[in-house]
């Protein structure tokens, strides 16, 4: 683990800056492609780094992921339907099982054999309210030897969740840099949860970059009434809190004091499009009396307050996406223009992205 004390000036070479904006992904990781509630027995089309994939549930509720392509005429299988646990193409009714093998052709003659064509099956897991997919190349019927990052707070009764979807016409590196750079709180004004951020140190290795900031926070959730600070800015009072942000490739996680934790789960689509899920957790750990209540009642409170920070989170996303897309357009119009950077964490992040992609090649 390397620890870096930031200096006053940072140099990002034009060649590194340019190459990062065109980077692919390391496919040998788990990415989030959908929320659990989005996937039903009606196929759902998703894309992870130029790979079109059809997600669907079988009759037992298990989620499967197949290449979104019928090998017969190359149309999308996601236009079809699930019949007897098989994915049926809308065009001619060819069916494919969960391994991607052709299982039925409705007009197959008695003297004909099923085509031996096969489409790709992707390892997929349903965990913590999301669908995690592994796009890397592995042997058939072999599962990846690593696990998804996961969200331990998702089912924890002491955490209230809010989910916002990020859709941006920009390379994923812009989103990660935005999330790792706590100095951009200037953009958010009354929506931000912190002020006066100051980078203290950086820990990094080949899998992650952890940046530790100190900040002044508006929120401290230690009394029932203090939750109202989420909705009434006039009630907020600044106090010092540690602010930690980590790029745990390929995802991001942040903690602000003991009260807030945020994840950003990435699904890069291509060089100029990124989808991500931003999940904000508010902790109720400080309310010890709440912990003595019946579990069913605590579950009711958790479910009732789901999305409590929606307006706040969506507002942050709108502002960030606007800036990120302007950065992308500026790069496309003139990739030779050099950025001047003062936050050393962004240099570490760019190097990590390159290291991960190089590892996968």
From TrEMBL:
CDD domains: Rieske_RO_Alpha_N
UniProt keyword Phosphoprotein, yes or no: no
PANTHER family: 3-CHLOROBENZOATE-3,4-DIOXYGENASE (PTHR21266:SF57), IRON-SULFUR DOMAIN CONTAINING PROTEIN (PTHR21266)
Pfam family, one: Rieske
Protein name per Swiss-Prot or TrEMBL: Aromatic ring-hydroxylating dioxygenase subunit alpha
Molecular-function annotations in GO: dioxygenase activity
Organism per entry: Sphaerospermopsis kisseleviana CS-549
SUPFAM superfamilies, sorted: Bet v1-like, ISP domain
Limits of the Rieske domain: 30-133
This protein's UniProt keywords: 2Fe-2S, Dioxygenase, Iron, Iron-sulfur, Metal-binding, Oxidoreductase
């Amino acid at each position: 683990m390397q620890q870096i004390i930031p200096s006053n000036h940072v140099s990002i070479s034009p060649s590194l800056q340019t190459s990062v904006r065109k980077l692919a992904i390391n496919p040998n990781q788990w990415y989030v492609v959908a929320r659990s509630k989005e996937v039903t027995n009606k196929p759902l089309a998703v894309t992870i780094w130029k790979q079109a994939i059809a997600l669907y549930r079988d009759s037992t509720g298990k989620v499967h992921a197949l290449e979104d392509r019928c090998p017969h005429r190359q149309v999308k299988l996601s236009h079809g339907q699930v019949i007897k646990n098989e994915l049926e193409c809308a065009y001619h009714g060819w069916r494919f099982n969960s391994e991607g093998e052709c299982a039925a052709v409705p007009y197959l003659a008695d003297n004909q054999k099923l085509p031996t064509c096969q489409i790709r099956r992707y390892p997929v897991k349903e965990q913590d309210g999301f669908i995690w997919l592994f796009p890397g190349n592995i042997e058939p019927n072999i599962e990846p030897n690593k696990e998804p990052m996961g969200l331990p707070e998702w089912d924890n009764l002491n955490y209230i969740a809010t989910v916002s979807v990020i859709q941006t016409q920009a390379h994923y590196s812009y989103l990660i840099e935005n999330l790792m750079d706590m100095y951009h709180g200037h953009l958010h004004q009354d929506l931000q949860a912190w002020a006066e951020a100051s980078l203290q140190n950086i820990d990094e290795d080949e899998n992650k970059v952890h940046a530790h900031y100190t900040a002044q926070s508006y929120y401290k959730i230690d009394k029932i009434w203090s939750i109202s600070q989420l909705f009434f800015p006039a009630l907020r009072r600044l106090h010092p809190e540690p602010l930690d942000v980590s790029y745990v490739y390929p995802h991001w996680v942040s903690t602000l004091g003991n009260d807030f934790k945020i994840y950003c789960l990435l699904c890069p689509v291509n060089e100029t499009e990124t989808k991500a899920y931003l999940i904000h957790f508010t902790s109720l750990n400080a309310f010890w009396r709440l912990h003595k209540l019946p579990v069913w009642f605590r579950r009711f409170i958790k479910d009732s307050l789901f999305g409590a920070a929606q307006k706040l989170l969506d507002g942050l996303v709108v502002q960030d996406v606007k800036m990120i897309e302007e950065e992308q357009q500026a790069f496309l119009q003139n990739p030779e223009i050099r950025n001047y950077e003062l936050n050393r964490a962004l240099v570490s992040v760019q190097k990590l992205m390159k290291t991960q992609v190089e590892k996968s090649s």
